[in-house]
Amino acid sequence: MTYLSPLRFAGWMAVFCGAASLSLAEDGGFNGLDMNLGNLSRLSKAQTRSACPENFTGEKGKAAMATEGTGKNASRELGQGWKVSPSVRIPAGTTFTLADIQGSGAIQHIWMTPAPIDKTRLYVLRFYWDDETQPSIEVPMADFFACGWGKYAQINSLPVCVNPGSAFNCYWNMPFRKKAKVTMENIDDKDMTLYYQIDYTLTDVPADAAYFHAQFRRVNRLAAKDVYTILDGIQGQGQYVGTYMAWEVHSPGWWGEGEIKFFMDGDQEFPTICGTGTEDYFCGSYNFENRDTKLYQTFSTPYTGLAQVLPPDIIYVPGQRFGLYRWHIADPIRFAKDLKVTIQALGWQSGGRYLPLEDDIASVGFWYQAEPHAKFPALPSREGLLVKPIEIKKPEEKK
After folding, report:
1. What is the tens place of the pLDDT at every residue in 147-164?
2. Fold held by 87-385
3. What is the distance between the alpha carbons of residues 263 and 243, in angstroms, rounded to a whole number?
4. Domain boundaries along the sequence of the chain
5. What does the mean pLDDT of the chain come to?
């Protein structure tokens, strides 16, 4: 028999009871949230629903009823119930409501596959919780799923997975108490086709559950000695849970010496948390360089990754592009009143001196907070969102 000291037993019970309290419904039963292998066997009164082109409202018993849709011609000999409406077409310059959910619950999974994939920076996702008129999430589709350069990159993380050939998935827990609305704006000059599924549960939401937020920013190009801002003006209580960055270098040499800083709860000139370098924050080391090939080494893990290097066969040249993510799932950055997040763009110059860089940087900050939230800054213009074709001159081989 294993002996537990009183202190260790108290700590174990605190963890157990805390986890259980987060999953209790008003009637004391399991509310079906915070799913994991440990509670997958538990019964719940939660109701599973899904919004997609075969059931826009997610209503019970209302799926696969379409007689019109993008699959009407293919199903013409089979009729209703045979994949009549598998996708939607969103005309250029319009916004389409993907889901309008009524009640209390949480979005638990989203799957999307757009066409064409190279324009995904011009497809803007917005999420509205309860009665708010300003979105809590406003992010180009590509960057929300950690693929900001409009090129496929496999992502093998816990909250975001990107699978062949253009399957975007996320598992962020997104609670709401009255309603949830999800829209997609197509700011391209051509129509888009979108297949999607938004899986959610209707259930009681704990009183201390905060709302999910995500904000996009881009600066092209960063002014010399400017610090890139990932988030600013965040007001209220919450926790920062993730960063995605699409980074294009404009100078030769290594580009990732810059420090990330978290200013919270009244911090002014100096932050409470400061990192030691860009690759350190994204949990890599020594320039992400493979010591054998002398090239960048991509990686994608549950919490962090350098999932994308474009193009992959050179290193330390201007114009190269990177996609990086860091999810603070086991280590959320908690704030009580306010939050600002910045990162430096820093390389090297002669004499062992740092070189402030003037790179093209885009980012998404992900966080939970109690509402209301401060209004987001305006998205960049259509031209400001565009990703131009990559142009890189490879270094000349030494003769």
Report:
1. 999 999 999 999 999 999
2. Jelly Rolls (2.60.120)
3. 15
4. 87-385
5. 93
